[in-house]
Structure formats: structure tokens, C-alpha cells
Amino acid sequence: MSYDYDLFVIGAGSGGVRAARMSASYGAKVAIAEEYRVGGTCVIRGCVPKKLFVYASHYAEDFESAAGFGWQVGERSFDWPTLIGNKDKEIDRLNGIYIRNLEASGVEILSGHASVKDAHTVLLDGREISAKYILVAVGATPFMPEIPGIEHAITSNEAFHIETLPDDIMVVGGGYIAVEFAGIFNGLGVNTTLVYRGEEILRGFDNEVRTHLHGELVKKGLTVKTESDIAEITPSGDGYEVTFKDGSKQTTGLVMYATGRVPKTDDLGLQQAGVALGARGEVLVDARSQTNIDSIYAVGDVTERAQLTPVAIREGAAFAETVFNNNPQEVDHSLIPTAVFSQPPIGTVGMGEEQARAAGHAIDVYATDFRTLKDTLSGSDEKTLMKLIVEQDSDKILGLHIVGPDSGEMIQAFGVAVTMGATKAQFDATIAVHPTAAEELVTFKQPRSAS
């Protein structure tokens, strides 16, 4: 049977773009449909602009630290519109690069809303297009709870386009997006409250990492309200009155929800086409990203395996290798180096202490917290945390966790070692680089605890 395309990709985010470009390089005729902008959540309204905001929010603290090193910083002020404008220019630049790279790879870019009609047919704004294979890579969208007044709240999508920075803000959620934005607003001088319904922020991370970060956020002037949830949001003056489920109230200039993201599958026609979906609307796939319909695949956040851009890219590459290069590949989701660009940031790979114990491992725990060399003069009382989880029988490092400056950069390198199955003895045999914070991870002598 003849098809219009060998591959039709729905969604031009990181995973879809990688799959499209690689498939085209293997000789496939490829089209990719996008209804917003090429680049997806990460480039347009996610990790890239957010990291730029993180950089911006650090300067106030850096100016204060400079005095301890003999620098006298003059009068200073912050202009939010300047940051927004420069961020937009960078996003426009990246968007252009993505478009040029797709075109250079021979991929046809189609603008509009695409949905699936059947195993080999896509509807693009009502027009039928046939394809031998269909790849769904539409990502996820912010989740908003159904409470009175929720229409007054914003999500991370809108946070990148606020016209005027409020005097105070309430960020709702305890995951990495909420924690990161709370740090951003706090660093930019906004009176910030982080509200989370659970016992401690960053559920799923090592418990010591969670409590350590919580304490550091509070040191920086951020208010953290755990075991607290919002019942209603009501306009009040120039801002809003927030009513909590315990009946207490608080006023704020803006409410931002970052309570997770859900797969964006509600208008794709997948169920009508017979594609199996999970309870949250995620596309159910096997280890090679194939759905229950042989010709339809899905990668990235829409599958809810791991909502991380590098994972989506790896899944997109594995798809292209499997389907168009006769080189079947599966992505290992069990060990993913991760950074949280909180303040201070977190870098982690492998198991947390509680996870390792729950899995039945007998472990040694090595941990330390300390002020970095820079902070001996900066005047900051921020503490860095370093932690290793080591399996007793094999001496293998099961988990490595850092809370402190440059931890995101460190975890990329340490992630290679942990992924390769490095042992504590191999870490010990590595000569330390002095003076650095990272040297602590290769100089641990005695475990803090063992079980």
C-alpha cells in the first residue's frame, strides 16, 4: 500500500523532533505537525526559559556575597520586562534553529492540530493524511485541580509571560517545578510562599535531600507551608484571598499552580482509533515505545514513563533506530541522572536511602554537610549535602545525591560512573581534586550508618 509519508509525527517537541530527524536520515519520508511552536515544552515554556530565570534570580545573592571578597557593588535594581524580553529573543532564536534543523534533515513541517483517525490515517485540521507509521509525541500539560476560583491561578506556562512581577506570590505544589519557581520568585525579591499538601516537598527523592533543601529554602526567606491545601481562590483588591482547607486565609498578589503535569491526549482521537490509554490518559507503550496498534508509537511525556526532556530525546532516537534503521533499541528508565534547579540545586542519580532499604538492600550510608570554601568569605550560611548509598555485598554505589552549587553539572559526570556500576572502592581510588566540593564524594572514610 502507498502512503503519503513513511512517518507522521504529532508534536514537535524534543522527542518528536529527534525521532523525525533521525528517521529522515535513514531515508524515511517524514512529516511533523505542530499547532504551537517547534521546540516543545522544554525549549518554549519549560527547562530553557526556566533555567534563564534561575540565573537571573541568583544575582541578588551574588551581589551580597561579593562584599566578602572585597567588591563593593553600587546601587542596583531589577527590571522584569528586560528579563522577559531577552528571554523571548533567546526562545525565538532556538525555535528558529529547530525549524532549520528539521528542514535541513528533509522533514516537512506542517502547522495545525493533528489527531489520529485510524492505524494509518492522521487528520490535520480535518484533512486526511496517510502514513505507514504514526508517532505521538505531544507531551503533557499542567494539571489544575477543580476548586472554586481556579480560573484566577496561573501555571508554569503563563509564568514566563507575566506582565508585572507581583510583590508576593503563592506557588502551589511540592514537585521540582514548584520548588524551582518558588526559588526563582524568591530570588527576584518577591515575597514567596510555597504550599504543598504532603508532609515534605519533593516526594520520591531521598528523604534527607528533601529535608535539607527545605531548611535551605527557609534560610533564604522562602515560606514553606506543608500539609496545607487550598480550598478556594477569591479576587481581593489588586490580588487574591486564598482560603485553605483548614479554614485559614492568606492574601497574595498571584497564585501559581505547579501540581504536576498530565499527558495531553484529550483531543487526539486515540481511543476512537483503538489506542490503549492509562488511567491518567497516558499512551500505553511497550519497551520499544509501540502501542497496542502496531503502526502507532509514542514517546516522551505523553507516555508518562519519565517526564524529562533527555528521556524523550533518547526514546525518540531509539524509535528511529528500531523502526527505520533495523537496529532495535530499548531505553533503560531505571537509572536517570536528574537535576532540580532549586536554590540550592539538587543533583541525584540512583536510589535514595529509603528506596534502597525498601528494595531489600543491605547498605552503608556515607553523608556529610558543610559550608563550601566560597561561603567562608561570602557570609552565607548555606550548607552543601553530599551522600552515597553503597550496597554492602557488592560495594556498588546504588545512589549518589548532592544538594549544593553546581550539583546539576556534577551529577552529569557522576551519573556516568554510577551508570557503569562503579563501586565505593573505585571512588576511593580516584584522586581528589582540591579544593572542590565534589572531592567529598571520593574521600568518605567511614559510613554514617549501615543496615
Q: What would CATH call the class of the largest domain?
A: Alpha Beta
What helical percentage do the residues reach? 25-40%
User: By CATH's scheme, which homologous superfamily of the largest domain applies?
Assistant: FAD/NAD(P)-binding domain
Strand elements, count:
22
The assigned structural class equals: alpha/beta
Global shape: globular
Low-confidence runs of at least 5 consecutive residues: none
CATH architecture of the largest domain: 3-Layer(bba) Sandwich
Strand content: 15-25%
Mean pLDDT: 96
What is the count of helical runs? 12
Descriptive account of the structure:
- The protein has 3 domains: 199 residues, FAD/NAD(P)-binding domain; 110 residues, FAD/NAD(P)-binding domain (3-Layer(bba) Sandwich); 107 residues, 2-Layer Sandwich (Enolase-like, domain 1), CATH 3.30.390.
- The chain is 30% helix and 24% strand.
- The protein is built from 12 helices and 22 strands.
- α1 runs parallel beside α8, α3 crosses α4 and α3 crosses α6.
- The N and C termini lie far apart (62 Å).
